[in-house]
Amino acid sequence: METVGFIGVGKIGLPVCENLIKSGYKVLGYRRGSLADFEKVGGTPAKSPAEIGKQCNVVFSCVPTPAAMDEVVNGANGLIHVGHEIACTLCAERIRYRCLEPEYRHGSDRCQH
């Protein structure tokens, strides 16, 4: 069973995770609030975005604001600290992270948006 990560297991992210789990994926999830509903649908909780990035090669994110996305990527426990490449789908209000473009994947200590 392939494990995928999901950051932002809230009103929008939870149904997406539930569908991934029903489709046979193991889903490791994170959110700043309670993960009780996520666990009820079969998800595995994570303590941080970095923990998800360390365990998954594919990470989805669905957070409400650019500030929240910045914390997911660049924060103290953000994806930038993973140490290996991961495929990310980052979804926030009209945001595009340049670190996902090939010329920024290596050697950049911060993602730009």
Can you tell me the CATH architecture? 3-Layer(aba) Sandwich
CATH topology: Rossmann fold
Please identify the structural class as seen in this structure: alpha/beta
Order of helices and strands: EHEHEHEHE
Strand content: 15-25%
Query: How helical, in percent, are the residues?
Result: 25-40%
Q: Point out poorly predicted stretches.
A: 93-113
Measured between the Cα atoms of the first and last residue, the distance is 33 Å
Strand order of the largest sheet: 3-2-1-4-5
Secondary structure tally: strands: 5
Q: Main beta sheet, described?
A: 5 strands, parallel
The CATH superfamily name is NAD(P)-binding Rossmann-like Domain
Provide the residue-averaged pLDDT: 82
Q: What is the CATH C level class, in words? A: Alpha Beta
* Rg: 13 Å
Shape: globular
